[in-house]
Amino acid sequence: MDETGDDPLADEDVYRVLGPDGVPLPDAAVPDLSDETFLAIYRDMVTTRRFDERAVSLQRQGRMGTYAPCAGQEGSAVGSTHALRDRDLISYQYREHGAIVVRDLLAEYLPYWMGHESGTAAIAEGNVFPLNIGIAAHLPHAVGASWAFDYRDEDRVVACHFGDGATSEGDFHEAMNFAGVFDTPTLFCCHNNGWAISVPRERQTASATFAAKASAYGFDGVRVDGMDPLASYAVTRAAAERARNADGEGDGGETPSDGPPTRPTLVEFVEYRYGAHTTADDPTAYRADDAVEPWRAIDPIDRMEAFLRETGRIDDEGVAAARDRADDVVADAIDAAEAVEPDPAAMFDHAYADLPPELRRQRDELLAAVEEHGEEAFDLGE
Ligand SMILES: Cc1ncc(C[n+]2csc(CCOP(=O)(O)OP(=O)(O)O)c2C)c(N)n1
Ligand SMILES: [Mg+2]
Fold first, then answer.
1. N- or C-end of the chain: fewer Cβ atoms within 10 A?
2. Choice among 286, 287, 309, 313 that is catalytic
3. Does residue 179 sit in the same domain as residue 203?
């Protein structure tokens, strides 16, 4: 499919549950979920969208650093995370904020984007690895973590999120190969949003699809509409079941699998990034303004809302309540993040167990200057 083209629904090999108008497609298997779970998926997407709007605004006001917007990609992040168990581990790139919303970790996470290391430590408590900016560098670690779960006979899987651009990195291929050979319980969640900054999907790979790459490593690849939260849920759920240790006995991680069914899966979420790559990017430099419109027409939140209305699960009041709730959750997270008192010396804390002499010198110099001039002089307090 031409993901940057006019018709996002043209490809028939993409798994979907909801049509563009939110009505389930003929013969679609709507996941058998409770009303509460359907509503939670909707609410979490609404909260993710609100978070995204506020985060961009905070950056523009100088209250936050560079930020990677996720509008358009809520369906895949939220739908897939609802398909996991709480003890399953999430490892992600930097745009799948919806996973954090589902895990209810916004307040803990936001400080990261404001430059505080505490943001990454806290989310680990919720089984989320720190986000990763070095493209694809987290994939071998995610496979290693899933291998460890298998080795210890823990019934846990790892959902590892990354972009289409990440598939061109060596780390992607090393991780995929290892996962295939050792049958690790890994879900490779590739977010094909059409772009890697200014590089379009057509320049990223000559493969027909990203999902097709899985066959080179001996396991399944599947394409799913990432702007359809229910399809994203269903595909991730099936992949997670395939990854789980069905007989409760790990293979000890020492021997390659002795045949099908293989356990890892590569899931290609076909979707689109509505906004800029980051707040430091200007997409008008490389893509037409109206390229986004066909994708907005299949917006994940609109489709889910239409589905919930159609099936009598939500009405105007319920929609207003979800939006009010999102405003509150995000406002509380921002208040909490802005209340964090940064310790200027903490920036030296996390790279080395023993600080090298030159960094020790810089740390001492900083502390002496803060002592002499006060924190206000460095704009560290507010
Ligand atoms: C190893 C490495 N090389 C280059 C970069 C610069 N960089 C940051 S984001 C990005 C594009 C990644 O695209 P994709 O994986 O499709 O993710 P998306 O941003 O579209 O979500 C690049 C090349 C980086 N962060 N790390
Ligand atoms: Mg991309």
1. C
2. 286
3. yes
Structural domain span for residue 372: 345-378
Give the CATH number, domain containing residue 112: 3.40.50.970
From 82, 273, 274, 303, active-site residue:
273
User: Does any ligand 1 atom lie closer than 6 A to the CB of residue 95?
Assistant: yes
Q: Are residues 155 and 217 in the same domain?
A: yes
User: Do 238 and 273 fall into the same domain?
Assistant: yes
Domain count, the chain: 2
- Note if the bond before 344 is cis, omega within 30 degrees: no
pTM here is: 0.93
Is 173 catalytic? The answer is: no
Q: Are residues 334 and 361 in the same domain?
A: no
C-alpha 202 – ligand 1 centre gap (Å): 16
What are the tokens at 379? 């704009």
* CA–CA separation, 310 and 24 (whole Å): 10
Task: Provide the pairing of β-strand 199-200 with 195-196.
Answer: antiparallel
pLDDT tens digits along 138-179 = 999 999 999 999 999 899 999 999 999 999 999 999 999 999
Question: For residue 118, is it within any domain?
Answer: yes
Phi and psi (nearest 5°) for 303?
-65, -40
273 is catalytic: yes
The closest of 235, 223, 145, 238 to 191, measured between CA atoms, is: 223
- Same domain, yes or no, for 370 and 222? no
Any catalytic annotation for residue 233?
no
**Are residues 304 and 358 both part of a single domain?**
no
Cα-to-chain-centroid distance, residue 134: 15
Q: Which amino acid would we find at residue 337? A: A
**Tens of pLDDT, residues 206-261:** 999 999 999 999 999 999 999 999 999 999 999 999 998 644 444 444 444 444 45
Q: Is 134 in the pocket of ligand 1 (CB under 6 A)?
A: yes
